[in-house]
């Protein structure tokens, strides 16, 4: 039986059709970056996955993406959530299209999985078959290569990554040493799509075993 899904919520969205030059300088925007779309989400890794998807569906680039310290439970306000993402493009229509991709990804494609009924213990074991410009740059790989995006609480992340790397012909190209800003850990692994899926499955299985027997070693 599959684990229960934990979907993120998009808390706030705004478009800036024609960004002010002084603000553009702060984000080091290129000359063709005239419009921005800004959003906040309750789950950072889902938000980053959605940003990457936006770069595949619209003529946009990710110009800012940050997690907030301690997570959504300790947010600075009711619309802050766990992360902020900003995409830039040449026109309002392009950033709107990018934002629509973000919304669709968050609503249906990317999600954490709950290891307990209270949903207080969760993991992210998500395979991206074809990376966009954002996550490929983060991982230091070519655009279009697959990745396994693996996130969990600190101990679980380390143990699960070891299991994932041993289960398939994959390479870890990005390590998120625990604790991250949101007190999780994990990494980005690359290989063939099937290898990334095998790694994600092994990551999930290893952490499920920990959740069922946390002290037994």
From TrEMBL:
| Keywords attached to this entry | Bacterial microcompartment
Q: Which InterPro entries match?
A: BMC_CP (IPR044870), BMC_dom (IPR000249), CcmK-like_sf (IPR037233), EutL (IPR030983), EutL_PduB (IPR009193)
Where found? Bacterial microcompartment
Entries under Pfam families matching the protein: BMC
User: What are this entry's molecular-function GO terms?
Assistant: structural molecule activity
Which cellular component, as a GO term, is one annotated location?
bacterial microcompartment
Main location as per UniProt: other
Domain named BMC circularly permuted is located at 1-111, 112-217
Name of the protein in question:
Ethanolamine utilization protein EutL
Q: Which organism is it from?
A: Sporosarcina globispora (Bacillus globisporus)
């Amino acid at each position: 039986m599959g684990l229960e899904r934990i979907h993120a919520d998009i808390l706030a969205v705004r478009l800036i059709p024609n960004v002010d030059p002084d603000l553009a300088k702060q984000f080091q925007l290129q000359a063709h970056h005239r419009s921005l779309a800004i959003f906040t989400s309750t789950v950072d890794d889902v938000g980053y996955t959605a940003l990457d998807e936006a770069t595949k569906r619209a003529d946009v680039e990710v110009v800012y993406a940050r997690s907030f310290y301690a997570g959504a439970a300790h947010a600075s306000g009711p619309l802050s959530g766990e992360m902020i993402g900003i995409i830039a493009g040449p026109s309002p229509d392009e950033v709107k299209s990018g934002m629509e991709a973000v919304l669709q990804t968050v609503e249906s494609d990317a999600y954490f999985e709950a290891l307990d009924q209270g949903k207080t213990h969760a993991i992210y074991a998500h395979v991206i078959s074809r990376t966009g410009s954002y996550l490929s740059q983060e991982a230091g790989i070519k655009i279009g290569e697959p990745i396994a995006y693996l996130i969990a609480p600190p101990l679980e992340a380390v143990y699960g990554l070891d299991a994932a790397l041993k289960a398939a012909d994959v390479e870890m190209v990005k390590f998120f040493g625990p604790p991250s800003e949101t007190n999780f850990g994990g990494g980005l692994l690359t290989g063939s799509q099937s290898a990334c899926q095998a790694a994600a499955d092994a990551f999930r299985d290893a952490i499920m075993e920990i959740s069922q027997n946390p002290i037994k070693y």
